[in-house]
Amino acid sequence: MSLRRMVLVGRTGAGKSSSANTILGRRVFRAAKGGSSVTKECWKETGDVADHQLELVDCPGLFDTSLSEKEMIKEISKCVNMTAPGPHAIILVIQLGPFTEEERLSVEKIRAIFGEEADQHTIILFTHGDELTQSIEETLEEAGEDLKELVESCGGRYHVFDNTKMHERSQVLEFLDKVTNMLQMNGDKYYTGDVFQGVEKMLKEKEEELKHQYNQKILELTTVHNEEKSKLEEIIQKLKESGQEKELKIKDLEEQVKKKNRSYTEHKRFYKQKYNSARQEVEETQVNENIPKQIRNKLRKLCI
Predict the structure, then answer these.
(1) DSSP output for the chain
(2) Residue 304 — pLDDT band, cuts 50, 70, 90?
(3) Cys-Cys crosslink for 130: which of 63, 146, 162, 226, Cβ 3.0 to 4.6 Å?
């Protein structure tokens, strides 16, 4: 299956989470209601759709004006980490209707983060397709110049979703075909830029460090557990062989073995889980250091 890393960007309430749910065919992202973000943190989900292995990243916090600059940089770092070494597609989600100043600033913010060249890897996804009273082509023909210029800068690539009909998989298949066509136009290469330089290498190194730590912890737990268990079992066996009437003592020791087994199993499961999700842990914690100074300056000029 072909891998597709995709990041959904756009102003709060545009329909990023709902669109991500429609693409995956299940409700895993929490959708914002009434224009307010239900969460400000970047989130990644994976799934197999058609003949693609998808990694979808929703970054609502990037467009939340209530975040401080420090919080904003942290969320940008997470977004970069979760899409490293770079997204195959940047999905710019826009709600059908007037192209507002807030949306224009959102586009400028995206370009500040990813760079102008990211337009070549961007496809516009219009939401609320159920409210269309005419074709999308006719709607765009009547749109303002700002929106027309945006569509043109993205190579004329756009698609429409009706997120009330998740079961209509044809709209998803058509969307994925457009992403594939865009990728082919880019030489089958994912997008990368200044913001992604060195990030993947850092993430892999940190991931290996964490995996080594958790694997060592599992080995230590196993060694200690086996030693304690062997001692208890040896005492039990001696009591049984001696013929002494110490059934209560034996029962107590056997109960201790059960508890230690249970404790060991749960601790091992915990660190095994940590081991398997080491990449996710690194993506969410190794933040702030991977955003170049020039990008921070551009964001400050946008008053975010």
Answers:
(1) -EEEEEEEE-STTSSHHHHHHHHHTS--SPPPBTTB-S--S-EEEEEEETTEEEEEEE-GGGG-TTS-HHHHHHHHHHHHHHHTT--SEEEEEEESS---HHHHHHHHHHHHHH-GGGGGGEEEEEE-GGG-SS-HHHHHHTS-HHHHHHHHHTTT-EEE--TT-TT-HHHHHHHHHHHHHHHHHTTT-----GGGTTHHHHHHHHHHHHHHHHHHHHHHHHHHHHHHHHHHHHHHHHHHHHT---HHHHHHHHHHHHHHHHHHHHHHHHHHHHHHTHHHHHHHHS-STTS-HHHHHHHHHTT-
(2) very low
(3) 162
Average pLDDT rounded to a whole number, residues 179-193: 92
Q: Which residue, among 68, 3, 7, 4, has the nearest Cα to 40 in the 3D structure?
A: 68
Distance CA 9, CA 119 (A): 13
pLDDT class for 35, splitting at 50, 70, 90? very low
Q: What is the pLDDT of residues 63-106, one digit of tens each?
A: 777 777 788 888 888 888 999 999 999 999 999 888 888 888 88
Q: Show Cβ contacts of residue 127 under 8 Å, excluding neighbours closer than 6 positions.
A: 14, 15, 18, 19, 93, 94, 95, 96, 160, 161, 163
Mean pLDDT for all residues in the chain: 86
Which tokens is 154 given? 């993205």
Could you give the CA distance from residue 61 to residue 75 in angstroms, rounded to a whole number? 6
Cα four-point dihedral sign 179, 180, 181, 187:
positive
